[in-house]
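Internal tracking record. Fields below are filled automatically when a chain is submitted to the structure queue. Please do not edit lines marked as system-generated. If the sequence contains nonstandard residues, flag them in the REMARKS field before resubmitting.
Queue: standard
Priority: normal
Entity type: single polypeptide chain
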Amino acid sequence: MANRPSLALSVLGLLCCLSGLGPTSAWGAPEQSPSVALASQTAPPADPAADPWLSEQGPAVVMPEEVAGERVAAAWSASSDGLHARGGALRRVRVEYGLGNLPAPAYVVLAAATEEDPHLYSALARDLAPGIPAIQMAHVLALWQSGDIGAATGAFGDALWASAGGLGPQLWLLQNVTFVLLVVVLCASLAFILLASLQVFPHAAHDLGDLLSSRTPAFARTAVLLGLLLAPLALGEGVIGLALAFFALAFAYARGSQRNALVMAAMLLVIGLHPLGQVVSVATGLGEQDPIARSAMAVVAGVEDRADVERLEAAFDEDATAAHALAYRARRYGLDERSREYIEALLVRRPTDGVLLANRGNLEMRRGRTETAIDYYEEASAEIDSATLLFDLSQAYASVFRLEEYETTIERAQRLDDEEVAALSDLDDARLVADLGFPVGMLRDRLRRFALSENTPHVALVGMLAPGRLGDRWFVTAGAFAVTALLCLLLADRYDHASRCVRCGHRICTRCEATVWSEEICDDCHHLFENPEATDPSLRMARLQALSKREVWIDRLVLVGALLVPGFAGFAARRPDFAMFGLLLFGWIAAWLVWPIGVFDDPMLMGPMAVLLFGVPGVLALFAYTGIVVASVVARKNR
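SYSTEM-GENERATED OUTPUT FOLLOWS
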């Protein structure tokens, strides 16, 4: 108990010492020198009126950095007068800053459509996202439901143009159409080679057995031939090696038009494995193979993340696509000064880029430097033809009262795209200038160069079909088929081929029979039909009845096979061209039934347009395939 007062006194003394020290002394700051302390004590009190912060100009300070604000969201939030007012504000922002499609607000507008006037809402949504075929088709359906068939027809043409002109729909079409073509071409060519080889397989097995021994049983002949055909598969060449072996078998026994069809099938197989497979690889694997292009497309679509921005910033100095994307993003977020810096840095490397020059002129125009803006516009107009650019130039001419040049320029703009000029003029703003959008042509050129590059990997399907050396390069695959065809031409006629009688089905072989009349008619049938007087009438009539029953049975089998097996009717009619085209058409029909709206479905982008783009060719292919089957059956009857 005696220690408590002393402890309390110690704590009290410590608090008094801390309160006597200043805040800097408490943290161990150095003490002032005596002269400084004396000066501070003798200095007169400061006059508040002399404070520089209270003067008119004040001291020089660092200006705060631009604050990013998404223009689309800001325009949507600032307009509170209704959905149409918000849509009009967004349309102006999209046009003024070249922001491309705005699908999110467009779908909001579509969702709010009323039953009385759905076409008014769909028209507004179309103006917000003119490059989205799904929204274009929604406008077509709304016009159709309202009874305006003529306007619906015109809008359908606009929807088709949007599907053909926009980068997003083009990539969707490229991905889906090329992938379906790849599957169709590979399957049709492989199926044709397989059917052609199966047609001559029994004759080849018989001939191969005769080379070994005339007493070789049928099952042994078949086993030996199968072993030879499967050898490339065992050597690791995959399906392409198997196809080469079957091609050699079919080509050795083929004649005339069937050899031509086999050459066409081999060419289609090479095209599908290499150039078409390379295009499919580029179209379907853009994100993994070209991250800069993927990030740039994400910026244009407004769905980029921080990783995309960092990737583009890292490639700014070397990649013009990345620089364009960053300038576009800065413009969309209202960072005009940063956008100007991006454009100026890019103009050093690309001084003749019309898009950069035009958008640089717009920045000057918005800052009130009209003459400087005109210089940029005139340089840009010498590089590119753009109605939007000429409209901006006419606005600049009108601002400085150069009326003759204004009229000439606006007429040029209207000749290029009168609808675009009318849409800009409807905004009724004498100071309006519209930015040019992201140059998607750069991405198209980038994809084209990447597709033609030898370093482009093949799709997994091609890798599974050709895992060995035969599938390494296109010239290796093509050379293998060409050498095989040449060897067959040189060696196929060195020995007699077995065949089958078209009337009775008897095998015709010069090594097994004493007399052979031809490759198609056996000696007995020739004697029966060509020398009836030398044949017993009753026996001849019984033989003819048996052959007639066989013909009816064969006709039924051919009809069933034509309906169930693609290409069978063409081979039965000895029209290999019909068989090849029938297989191609059937492949497209099968792909349409499996993927009615595309392999890579994107309903927010394509919508009902995907059904039309796949459905119309599918229906046409169905009618064409039916016609080929009927023509094949008729050709066989007339043979």
